[in-house]
C-alpha cells in the first residue's frame, strides 16, 4: 500500500506509462534520447501541475485561518526558543517563494516581533512549506521528504536563534523599524469565502510559477537524457568532496520555487548525484535566490543581510554533508 501511494498516487507513474503509450502511438520512440526527453518533459509537467493546483488549493484553505494579523498574535504569545519554533512552523503555511514571504516578514518586524522569530519565519516559509512535503514524498519517498522538512525547520529555528542572540536590531532599516503597525481585526470568513480565496490563490500562484516549472522540467529532461552519468558523478558524486558547497553556491543566485527545482533535483539524483548535494541545491535556490535577497536588502542593512546569508549557507552545507553520510539509510 505504501509503495502504491508513493508511486501511483503521489508519483503518478501511470501518467508516465500513458505518455509513453501515446508517444509510441504517434510514432515517437521513447527509447531514444529525444523521445525519452519528450516523455520525461510531458510526464513531469502534467504531474507537477496536478500536484501544484491541488496542494495550493488545500494549503491556501488552511492559510485562510492564519492571516498575517493572526500569525502575529500567535507568535507574540511565545518567547525564546519556543517563539522561534512557532515562527518556523507558521512559515510552513505561507506563500511558496521567498519573494512572497518577505513583505510578510517586513510586517512582522514593523509590528515589533523579535528579530530572531521573524527570521525563523523567513527561512522556513519558502524552504519547508507543506507543499514541498507532499511533492517530495511523490518524487523521493516519505523518508527523504520527512527528513528534508525536519532539517529545514531545524535550520529555521537555529538560524533565527543565532540572529536573535547577535542583537542586531539596529541593523533593520529605519523605514521598517519606525513604521507604524496598525492592528486590523481580520474579518470572519465563511466556508464559501475560504474556498473562493483558495481558488484565487491557485490561479494567481499557478500563473507565477508555471514558467519556472517549464524551465525546471526542461533542464531536468536535458540532464536525464543527454548529460552522461559519469559527468554528474564526477561533479556532484562521491568523487568530489566539495560537491555540496558547489551545489549550494550555484543555487544561491538562481530564482525558482520548490516546484521548479524538484525536476532538476530528480534528474540529478537519477544520474548519480549524492542526495545531500541535491537537497542543498534545492534549499539554496528556494531560500537564497538573488531577487529575494535584493528585496530583503530594502528591509535590513548589509551586516544583517550578510549574517542571514552566512547562517543559511552554513546550515545548508552542513545538512548536505549530513544527508550524504546517511544516504544509504534514506534511499
UniProtKB/TrEMBL annotation:
Domain of life: Bacteria
Chief subcellular location: membrane
Keywords: Cell membrane, Membrane, Transmembrane, Transmembrane helix
Transmembrane regions: 48-66, 78-96, 102-122, 134-158, 209-227, 239-262, 274-296, 308-330
Stretches assigned to coiled coil: none
Cellular location(s): Cell membrane
One Pfam family hit: ArsP_1
Its membrane topology: Multi-pass membrane protein
Protein family (similarity comment): Belongs to the UPF0718 family.
This protein's name: Permease
Native species: Absicoccus intestinalis
Amino acid at each position: 500500500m505504501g509503495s502504491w501511494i508513493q508511486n501511483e498516487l503521489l508519483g503518478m507513474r501511470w501518467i508516465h506509462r500513458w505518455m509513453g503509450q501515446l508517444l509510441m502511438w504517434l510514432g515517437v520512440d521513447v527509447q531514444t534520447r529525444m523521445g525519452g526527453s519528450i516523455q520525461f518533459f510531458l510526464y513531469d509537467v502534467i504531474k507537477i501541475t496536478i500536484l501544484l493546483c491541488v496542494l495550493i488549493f488545500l494549503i491556501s484553505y488552511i492559510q485562510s485561518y492564519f492571516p498575517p494579523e493572526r500569525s502575529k498574535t500567535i507568535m507574540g504569545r511565545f518567547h525564546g526558543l519556543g517563539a522561534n519554533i512557532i515562527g518556523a512552523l507558521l512559515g510552513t503555511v505561507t506563500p511558496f517563494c521567498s519573494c512572497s514571504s518577505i513583505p510578510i516578514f517586513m510586517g512582522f518586524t514593523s509590528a515589533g516581533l523579535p528579530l530572531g522569530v521573524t527570521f525563523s519565519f523567513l527561512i522556513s516559509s519558502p524552504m519547508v512549506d507543506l507543499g514541498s512535503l507532499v511533492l517530495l514524498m511523490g518524487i523521493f519517498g516519505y523518508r527523504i521528504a520527512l527528513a528534508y522538512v525536519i532539517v529545514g525547520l531545524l535550520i529555521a529555528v537555529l538560524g533565527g536563534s543565532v540572529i536573535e542572540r547577535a542583537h542586531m536590531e539596529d541593523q533593520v532599516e529605519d523605514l521598517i523599524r519606525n513604521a507604524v503597525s496598525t492592528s486590523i481585526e481580520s474579518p470572519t470568513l465563511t466556508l464559501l469565502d475560504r474556498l473562493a480565496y483558495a481558488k484565487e490563490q491557485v490561479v494567481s500562484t499557478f500563473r507565477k510559477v508555471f514558467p519556472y516549472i517549464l524551465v525546471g522540467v526542461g533542464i531536468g529532461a536535458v540532464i536525464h537524457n543527454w548529460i552522461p552519468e559519469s559527468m554528474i558523478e564526477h561533479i556532484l558524486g562521491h568523487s568530489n568532496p566539495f560537491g555540496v558547497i558547489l551545489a549550494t553556491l550555484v543555487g544561491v543566485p538562481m530564482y525558482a520555487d520548490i516546484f521548479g527545482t524538484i525536476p532538476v533535483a530528480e534528474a540529478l539524483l537519477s544520474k548519480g548525484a549524492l542526495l545531500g548535494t541535491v537537497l542543498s541545491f534545492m534549499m539554496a535556490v528556494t531560500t537564497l535566490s538573488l531577487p529575494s535577497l535584493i528585496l530583503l536588502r530594502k528591509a535590513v542593512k548589509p551586516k544583517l543581510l550578510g549574517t542571514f546569508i552566512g547562517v543559511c549557507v552554513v546550515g545548508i552545507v552542513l545538512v548536505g554533508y549530513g544527508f550524504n553520510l546517511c544516504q544509504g539509510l534514506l534511499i
